[in-house]
Design a protein that fits this description.
Elements: H1 9-15, H2 21-28, E1 36-40, H3 46-51, E2 57-62, H4 65-68, E3 77-81, H5 88-95, E4 103-107, H6 115-125, E5 132-142, H7 145-158, H8 167-170, E6 181-182, E7 192-201, H9 202-210, H10 213-220, H11 228-238, E8 244-257
Parallel strand pairs: 1-2, 1-4, 2-3, 4-5
Antiparallel strand pairs: 5-8, 6-8, 7-8
Helix pairs in contact: 1-9, 7-11
Length: 269
């Protein structure tokens, strides 16, 4: 997946929705310490920026160096390129010592991960007790009934070009393995539904779909999913290129902490 989002890195920041400030606040309230957070697959730092409001330092990592070139800068965020060639120990050493991380976040990305490997690293890094991992995503956008119907028809043309790993995102992370103890913000098989409101122009919508991996994959195969005809149909359903609408991205979250049974107890003679 290393180069999956490199080609659309320039439009990714503008196209994707920001996450509500309330999300970061409720996550911060769950962790007793606020020293260090790790934002994984940070892309251009959209989630890292919100986390940085509540934690002294945020390590924001991504396997895409192209995405990191467009990251939003902030004094307490340290961006880091972490290619897949890094070993688990090398990755951990770049983040912090075992048990040093208070919050781990993954926004719109965990469905791409090697989950057993990632979860093993998470369980070593999270501060115990009290460390929290939160993952979230979104898989739909509600505009108007007329536009939603047109968008659904167009979306069906993209289906052959999606990577199979997207399947857990499509069902709202209900099928996502998540071996952590619930902290009241969703659990394995039962994610928390969260809306993401946004003011969006038609141009903004188009930039969002242009950043989809399926659209890029299709283009590489010589298929233009956003033909002139397709765009004109979507624009008409939107109500015109100059119209700005209040839309809702349909989001979901799962959050947890390392299970008590998995904590390592050291006996002192």
């Amino acid at each position: 997946m290393a180069g999956l989002f490199d080609k659309q890195a320039e439009i990714y920041l503008e196209a994707r929705p920001s996450y509500p400030a309330e999300w970061y606040k409720m996550l911060a309230e769950l962790t007793p310490h606020h020293r260090l957070a790790w934002d994984v697959a940070t892309g251009n730092g959209q989630a890292a920026f919100g986390v940085a409001d509540h934690y002294e330092e945020v390590i924001a990592t991504d396997i895409s160096s192209a995405q990191l070139k467009h990251a939003k800068q902030r004094a307490n965020i340290r961006y880091m390129h972490t290619p897949l060639s890094l070993s688990d120990d090398e990755l951990m050493n770049s983040i912090g010592a075992e048990g040093s991380v208070d919050l781990i976040t993954v926004a719109q990305a965990i469905h791409w991960f090697d989950l057993p490997r990632f979860y093993s690293i998470v369980k070593r890094l999270l501060r115990k007790p009290g460390g929290v991992i939160a993952v979230w995503g979104y898989n739909d956008i509600e505009v108007t009934p007329k536009f939603d119907a047109a968008a659904k028809r167009w979306y069906e043309t993209t289906i052959p070009y999606w990577n199979s790993k997207i399947s857990s995102l499509n069902v709202g992370y209900q099928s996502l393995p998540f071996p952590f103890e619930s902290v009241g913000l969703g659990s394995e098989g039962n994610p928390l539904s969260l809306d993401i409101p946004k003011e969006l122009s038609f141009e903004g919508y188009m930039r969002m779909v242009q950043s989809w991996s399926a659209v890029v994959a299709a283009k590489e195969q010589g298929v233009d999913l956003l033909s002139e005809e397709a765009v004109e149909e979507l624009e008409a359903a939107w109500g015109g290129a100059g119209v700005v609408r209040s839309v809702v991205y349909k989001g979901f979250m799962v959050a947890g902490k390392v299970k008590v049974s998995e904590k390592i107890t050291i006996s002192v003679p």
